[in-house]
Design a protein that fits this description.
The complex is a heterodimer of chains A (about 150) and B (about 325). Chain A has about 150 residues and is mainly alpha-helical. Chain A contains eight helices and no strands. In chain A, helix 2 crosses helix 3 and helix 3 packs across helix 6. The longest helix of chain A has 29 residues. The relative contact order of chain A is 0.08. The two termini of chain B are about 25 Å apart. In chain B, helix 2 packs across helix 3. Classes of the chains: A mainly alpha (about 150), B alpha/beta (about 325). At the A-B interface, helix 1, helix 4, helix 5 and helix 6 of A face helix 6 and helix 7 of B.
Chain lengths: ~150, ~325
């Protein structure tokens, strides 16, 4: 039999075969349920802002987002977020809570390097690309909408 | 004087002795199957230090001090301190060496550092005129995660082939004379890279290096896998272990009877996340904690290391890996 140690391509094929398959059905289901639960909670909070704090329905999204970001940050700081995310995957990553987690976790991690070179410069290490591509996409979409 | 046998194996005719050793771990490892044998288990990951890096330092220096005490060696009697860890500039080893105060050789073999240190210790004692060499290594889940992957609290879903970095440190006193397990011979590995690029799939990246070192070791010494009571690899995890067994089978070596991987031993089944454990401390804790307390006559420890850096992975390069093998004999049939 041929020596796989001399044949990177054949070895890579074998390694691919031996990779355990992620449980796609379970992962999709958990992501759907957790992501859905987060959005339902967001809707619940938004309704509270409309009903009890007299926000106009089209303006209630702002305090709701801020509240969800606060909850995401709090769960990150208390060490709960990553435990939920381990199972929920995209369910926690896609809503604004995931964005909050990426910033707060980086800020926590690099606090010991000081406020300027640590927190200040590393805080957006993960979220930075979301902002950059978010802004670029918004610009392109805005341009298209202006031309149409 | 150490002698070279075959292409990559060195024997130590003066039979350097491991007279003292120590294992220090974090909480999760302490609750695992090897935990009962550890010398010290810290109940939390910060270990009451200001940073995880300082906690890792504390583990390494604690391991060295306990090993010296158990070996009955004073700090100023240490001829050379050999140490390696996973962090940039092997800073944990540097600070520990400062505290040990002995002449220091820093090594980087990623998670193969344990066997690299043992080999150098054997070499220095066997032919270099050293009486006492201390070899130490450490890893900390939170320091390694932040350097190689994401911040500790970042919520990421890991693939089933990912491994969990072990929190722990270990140290061994290699002495010219005394009683204890004997460093019989060692095979220094070559860097292997078969093009695996996924930094989560380190088992697959390292399995060829482990295979190459084991095959070379067997060819150099004329031994069979059955000549060892146990062959262990450092931290291939489940995926890497399966690949190694397959690679061995295709080369006509049957490892099914007496081969295991430390990455699958250190945590209990319930504790194991994804494919198992990794980290410098993985092979060291399992070997010195668990295996040294079994009734073995001779074991082969093959510590495996992935030599990639975060930069090399981000730039799309594949993962170079290495494995060093050390044969340890127990004259009393275990301790």
């Amino acid at each position: 039999m041929k020596n796989l140690l001399r044949d990177p391509k054949a070895y890579q094929e074998l390694a691919e075969q031996k990779k355990p398959r992620p449980n796609l059905a379970k992962n999709l289901f958990t992501a759907f349920v957790v992501g859905g639960a987060i959005c339902t909670l967001g809707q619940f909070i938004q309704n509270i802002y409309i009903k009890y704090f007299n926000f106009a329905p089209d303006r209630a999204g702002d305090p709701t987002t801020a509240t969800m970001i606060f909850i995401g940050g709090l769960l990150t700081a208390t060490g709960v977020f990553d435990k939920i995310a381990r199972h929920a995957g995209a369910g926690t990553a896609v809503p604004v809570t995931g964005f909050a987690n990426s910033i707060v976790s980086a800020a926590l991690e690099f606090k010991r390097e000081g406020f300027v070179l640590g927190v200040g410069s590393k805080m957006f290490a993960l979220a930075g690309s979301v902002i950059v591509f978010g802004v670029v996409t918004a610009f392109v979409v805005g341009l298209i909408s202006a031309l149409l | 004087m150490a002698m070279k046998v075959g292409s990559q194996t060195f024997t130590f005719p003066s039979r350097p002795v491991l007279t003292g050793w120590a294992t220090v771990s974090g909480p999760k490892e302490g609750q695992g199957p090897a935990g009962a044998y550890f010398d010290k288990i810290f109940p939390d990951l910060t270990m009451q230090q200001k940073s995880f890096e300082k906690a890792e330092q504390l583990m390494m220096i604690t391991a060295v001090e306990i090993a010296l005490e158990k070996g009955g060696v004073a700090k100023d009697a240490v001829d050379v301190f050999v140490a390696g860890d996973l962090l940039n500039q092997i800073i944990i080893s540097g600070y520990s060496a400062l505290k040990v105060g002995a002449p220091y050789l820093g090594i980087y073999g990623a998670c193969s550092s344990f066997c690299e240190g043992l080999f150098l210790g054997g070499l220095l004692v066997d032919g270099g005129g050293a009486q006492y060499v201390v070899a130490a290594t450490s890893s900390h889940n939170c320091t390694a995660e932040r350097q190689f992957r994401y911040p500790t609290e970042y919520g990421a879903q890991l693939p089933p082939w990912a491994q969990h970095t072990v929190t722990g440190a270990a140290a061994v006193v290699v002495a010219a004379r005394g009683s204890g397990p004997v460093l019989e011979l060692a095979t220094v590995g070559k860097v292997m890279d078969l093009g695996i690029k996924d930094p989560y799939n380190m088992g697959a990246a390292m399995a060829p290096a482990a295979a190459d070192t084991i095959f070379t070791h067997l060819a150099d010494t004329g031994r069979q896998p059955g000549d060892y009571d146990l062959i262990v690899t450092g931290d291939l995890g489940r995926v890497g272990r399966e690949l190694l067994v397959e690679l061995a089978l295709r080369q006509g070596h049957d490892l099914s009877a007496n081969y295991r991987d430390c990455g699958e031993i250190i945590y209990s089944r319930e504790q194991t996340e994804n494919a198992g454990a990794s980290g410098c401390a993985c092979s060291a804790l399992v070997t010195l904690g668990l295996l040294f307390n079994q009734n073995y006559r001779r074991i082969l420890v093959v510590a495996t290391g992935a030599l990639h850096s975060p930069t090399s992975c981000q730039q799309g390069d594949s993962i170079p890996a290495i494995a060093h093998a050390v044969s340890i004999e127990f004259p009393k049939g275990g301790q």
